[in-house]
């Protein structure tokens, strides 16, 4: 028997009202739904509200659907007056209608007795005590979704909101459990600790500049440019331009350093504000239009006006009831664009405040999000962003001056930092292996491991591994194994390391590393990257987890050296033909290449010293 979808089913277990049918009206299916009744005396009552919809005896429909394989797209159970649990006939009907994948919508369920009798749930139709306890907490939530099962109160506003969520869910994005907080342990997130945004962002950036060497400029150039963009979006374009001009004085090749993702948002603001400074690059209007069009495509804005309005209604519900600040897959910037273009100014201001304030607290780069689209830039320049941040023109001038001075001082401060870094590196390079490994214990997982250090590997175990692998392992890595045969997990972004007995060759495809090209840490563009070798096999030395470290074998390194030299890289930048360890965080964008394993451990030991560990030589 082939199953087929039918339209909506409405279970009329009590008297209908105009309000109770608002859900169907919002979906525009009141007259196309099928209404199930138990007693023929209800037909006249139903016809007061429904002129064209089919009215069918519930038992007859159940028998027919079981015979014909009919499955409704959704089942709507309007609010029931009284205790439904006493009516075993309706309970049997509701059970028979429920199928995996059928959306079930019910109002005032807790009061109706359905939840108390464990009749309806997306997980099963026989709820356990834990689920009943969870559902009891839903009385305080207007709408709750658990996979295919939705429950809501029966107010007019809520029923309309329920319909908008259902329509939006057909396009994706509504969590399977909504709102998320309804499924968390009570009290788990009742009083979250919310950090305050920095009151001195420019001073923070100035300190960042003073703490880095020339080799680390990328770590502060992006934040400086992003802060300049923030100033512009607040309407302080002159202060923005002062910061950018100061950056250019120190880094003449700023366009290359920032890349399109750093430059284009600034260009969007300059174009809208009409205050572009003198710059050593030009951006054609066509390039900016293409950039803007590409960003808008990421927002997945529907082409139809009705679809856009439906989405906006669903965003309102997701923000107010679901505490949703991301609005996946449309994103909060996308929601603001739709609101602005629909004339929903109040919502656009509310969501802009949600984006900016939330990002400021969590230190996210909100200016690049707002500056990515012309509609957002134009809306920001109406003064809404300056109102949200409270950043005055006088403060902006002072901040620009603070950052400018830090950039002017950078040649001197970077020289001091480089001298300190050389001294620190020399101190750790001269330290014996045991001292370095002991320092890592400061990162042990408290309450799980007494130490991250394991008993040493035996020389024979190392020789057996080399014979099994068919290679000679790097000498510094073997020195490490003779002190600790791998490590337990650490509490920072450092992997635990495997025992030598567990080492084996692995396929990059199996590890999800087939995209990696062997750059040896050299900066390359996309065209150059395509000319570099891939890894044929890798020797993973880390335990499974978010952090990974593996070795690229010398033969592959030799291929990469030859290719990079052909692309003009120096002998110093490519290094020697030897094993190269690579570190990768799954959520970080770039690989980290190290000259050898010892250098990596020295860098972790330096982090340990900052955390309070002592280097005992």
3D architecture notes:
The strands form 3 sheets. An 8-stranded mixed sheet has the order 4-3-2-6-7-9-8-10. It has a 5-stranded antiparallel sheet with strand order 11-12-13-14-15. The chain has a two-stranded parallel sheet with strand order 1-5. The chain has 28 helices and 15 strands. The longest helix has 20 residues, at 410-429. It has 3 domains: 4-183, 3-Layer(aba) Sandwich (Rossmann fold), CATH 3.40.50.880; 194-420, no CATH class; 431-610, SMI1/KNR4-like. It is α/β, with parallel strands linked by helices. It is globular and about 95 Å long.
What is the topological layout?
Elements: E1 4-6, E2 9-11, H1 22-27, E3 34-37, H2 42-47, E4 54-57, H3 58-68, E5 70-72, E6 74-77, H4 88-97, E7 103-107, H5 109-112, H6 129-136, E8 143-146, E9 149-152, H7 156-169, E10 177-178, H8 201-210, H9 218-233, H10 237-250, H11 254-258, H12 260-273, H13 285-298, H14 305-320, H15 332-342, H16 345-362, H17 366-370, H18 374-389, H19 393-408, H20 410-429, H21 433-439, H22 459-469, H23 475-481, E11 505-506, H24 508-511, H25 526-529, E12 538-540, E13 547-552, H26 554-566, H27 571-574, E14 580-585, E15 592-593, H28 597-610
Parallel strand pairs: 1-5, 2-3, 2-6, 3-4, 6-7, 7-9
Antiparallel strand pairs: 8-9, 8-10, 11-12, 12-13, 13-14, 14-15
Helix pairs in contact: 7-14, 8-9, 8-19, 9-10, 9-12, 10-19, 12-18, 14-15, 15-16, 16-18, 20-28
């Amino acid at each position: 028997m082939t199953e087929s979808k039918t339209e909506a089913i409405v279970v009329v277990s009590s008297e209908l009202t105009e309000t109770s049918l608002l859900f169907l009206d919002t979906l525009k299916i009141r007259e196309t739904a099928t209404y199930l009744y138990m007693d023929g005396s209800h037909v006249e009552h139903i016809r007061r509200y429904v002129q064209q919809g089919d009215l069918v005896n519930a038992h007859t429909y159940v028998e027919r659907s079981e015979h014909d394989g009919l499955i409704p797209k959704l089942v709507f159970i309007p609010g029931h007056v009284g205790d439904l649990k006493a009516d075993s006939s309706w309970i049997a009907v509701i059970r028979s209608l429920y199928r995996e994948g059928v959306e079930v919508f019910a109002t005032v369920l807790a009061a109706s007795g359905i939840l108390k009798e464990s009749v309806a749930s997306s997980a099963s139709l026989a709820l356990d005590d834990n689920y009943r306890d969870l559902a009891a907490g839903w009385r305080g939530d207007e709408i709750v979704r658990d996979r295919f099962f939705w429950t809501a109160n029966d107010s007019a506003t809520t029923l309309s909101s329920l319909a908008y969520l259902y329509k939006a869910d057909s396009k994706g994005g509504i969590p399977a459990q909504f709102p998320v907080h309804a499924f968390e342990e009570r009290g788990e997130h009742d009083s979250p600790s919310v950090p305050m945004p920095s009151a001195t962002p420019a001073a923070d950036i100035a300190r960042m500049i003073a703490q880095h060497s020339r080799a680390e400029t990328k770590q502060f150039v992006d934040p400086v440019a992003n802060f300049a963009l923030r100033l512009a979006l607040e309407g302080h374009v002159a202060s923005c331009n002062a910061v950018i001009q100061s950056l250019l004085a120190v880094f003449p090749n700023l366009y290359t350093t920032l890349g399109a993702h750093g430059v284009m948002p600034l260009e969007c603001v300059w174009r809208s504000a009409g205050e572009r400074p003198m710059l050593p690059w030009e951006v054609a209007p066509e390039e900016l239009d293409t950039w803007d069009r590409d960003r808008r495509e990421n927002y997945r804005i529907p082409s139809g006006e009705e679809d856009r309005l439906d989405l906006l209604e669903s965003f309102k519900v997701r923000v107010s009831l679901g505490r949703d600040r991301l609005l996946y897959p449309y994103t909060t910037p996308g929601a603001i664009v739709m609101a602005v273009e629909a004339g929903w100014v109040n919502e656009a201001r509310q969501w802009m405040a949600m984006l900016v304030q939330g990002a400021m607290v969590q230190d996210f780069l909100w200016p690049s999000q707002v500056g990515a689209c012309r509609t957002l830039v134009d809306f920001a320049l109406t003064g809404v962003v300056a109102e949200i941040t409270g950043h005055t023109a006088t403060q902006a001038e002072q901040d620009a001056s603070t950052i400018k001075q830090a950039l002017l001082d950078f040649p001197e401060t970077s020289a001091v930092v480089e001298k300190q870094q050389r001294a620190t590196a020399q101190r750790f390079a001269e330290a014996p292996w045991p001292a370095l490994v002991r320092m890592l214990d400061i990162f042990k997982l408290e309450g799980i491991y007494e130490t991250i250090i394991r008993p040493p590997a035996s020389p024979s175990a190392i020789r057996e591994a080399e014979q099994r692998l068919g290679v000679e392992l790097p000498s510094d890595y073997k020195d490490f194994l003779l002190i600790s045969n791998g490590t337990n997990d650490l509490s920072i972004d450092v992997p635990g390391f495997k025992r030598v007995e567990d080492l084996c060759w692995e396929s990059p495809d199996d590890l999800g590393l087939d995209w990696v090209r062997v750059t040896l840490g050299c900066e390359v563009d996309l065209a150059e990257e395509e000319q570099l070798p891939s890894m044929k096999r890798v020797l993973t030395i880390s335990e499974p987890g978010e952090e990974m470290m593996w070795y690229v074998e010398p033969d592959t390194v030799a291929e990469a050296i030859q290719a990079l030299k052909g692309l003009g890289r120096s002998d110093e930048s490519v290094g020697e033909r030897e094993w190269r360890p690579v570190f990768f965080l799954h959520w970080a964008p770039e690989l980290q290449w190290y000259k050898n394993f010892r250098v990596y451990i020295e860098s972790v030991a330096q982090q340990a010293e900052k955390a309070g560990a002592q280097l005992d030589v």
